[in-house]
Amino acid sequence: MAKSITDVAGRTYGEARYKEGEAGSDLTPGELLVQTGTNADGEPIYDAVSTVDKLGPEAQFAMVPSTPPARDVSDADPIEQTIPSGTLVEVRVFTAGETVQNALLASGSDLATASNANVSPGDRLGSNDDGSLKITTTGGAAVAVAREANDNSGAAAGERARLNVEVL
Asked: Region Disordered: what ranges (predicted)?
């Protein structure tokens, strides 16, 4: 499957599941999300997973907003634009065996062990504390496996990379 450079997409078996709610903080398409509560209207609030190696995470990722899918004033592609806190976030829920294009791989500078941002196909990936993925050896923390190699171990803090993964 060719990698899209403008969307968070994936291969789905059966009907794709989508959710939407309020962004509880500034989010980036491709971040691994968790529901952190509900707002006054009873709508779910989503934030990036904030736990390193969160156990049993659900594979739900922030999508590129489709309402509207327009560039902001920065000229950045929509996939790189921030979804502001308090606005609508579209969430795609992936199940085992489905692939996710353009999930975010942590920067080595953001990790306790920089080599956990140097992935090879088949490496088991869990959450970092910023919604990105990293290599994990913690039992029950893996949410996906890498489908491609990507070495982001030398990247500066905050410079996350895009990665294709398969959900476990």
From this structure: 1-30
Q: Which helix (H) or strand (E) holds 136?
A: none
Is a pLDDT exceeding 80 seen at residue 73?
A: no
CA distance 149 to 163: 8
Residue 11 CA to residue 54 CA, distance in Å, equals: 24
Does the pLDDT of residue 15 top 60, yes or no?
A: yes
Can you list the domains of the chain with their CATH numbers?
17-50+58-93 (2.40.340), 99-167 (no CATH)
Beta bridge mates, 161? 105
Quote the CA–CA distance of 109 and 131 in Å, as a whole number.
Answer: 15
pLDDT at residue 104 greater than cutoff 90: yes
Structure token pair of residue 41: 């209207």
